[in-house]
């Protein structure tokens, strides 16, 4: 057998039986990789649930217990309110992340990396929550807002990778997903800038707004937004099918 100029075995110099064996080995290897990525997705979802559960546990452990009279009890109430705000934010992130993973067929490296960056940003929330419990000033809430934005950004990028994972990486779908992602990132950026500006002048108002957003999204999902997402997925699917049909027609014409 001769080697390919780049160091690989050239199938043209293999016998028919050896070539058949080689194709069978490659098919088995591809099957193993596909099954491994599918199992990895399941393990990753379990890992995400565990990390988010730990994050919530850490946040509740940061709530100080009352020790000396009415002042400490009021401090407990304020800390519990801060914890509930952070809890609903993390719970909403888990909900959105779960929906995004519903689009993932296989856990690619891009999805793995984005997922870990998302968890890293989310893991900082207990620290920001403790900071606000100790000192509810503008700086603490602004930093909370920055972490909130970074976690949102990672979630949006994850949605894009999941979108491509579901519908393929054709040029049409690629540009379509880019437009959606960029528009949503700009929307999140403008919203978080507004909340940070409010936090600089009215910290308590900003905390109420940070609480209201995930609660509204979690308990009262916008039906218009859900219909819009459904239209986006349907359009992407039709675009993908149209691209595949054009490719088949072009290949048939060439043959």
Automatic annotation (TrEMBL):
Residue spans of biased composition, Basic and acidic residues class: 8-21
GO cellular component labels: membrane
Gene Ontology molecular function: any one: potassium channel activity
Transmembrane region(s): 47-65, 77-95, 107-128, 140-159, 180-199, 205-221
Region of interest called Disordered, as start-end residue ranges on this chain: 1-21
Subcellular localization(s) per the UniProt record: Membrane
Membrane disposition: Multi-pass membrane protein
Transmembrane as UniProt keyword: yes
A Pfam family of this chain: TMEM175
InterPro entries recorded: TMEM175-like
Catalytic activity: K(+)(in) = K(+)(out)
Domain of life: Bacteria
Alphabetically ordered keywords of this record: Ion channel, Ion transport, Membrane, Potassium, Potassium channel, Potassium transport, Transmembrane, Transmembrane helix, Transport
Family label: Belongs to the TMEM175 family.
Protein name: TMEM175 family protein
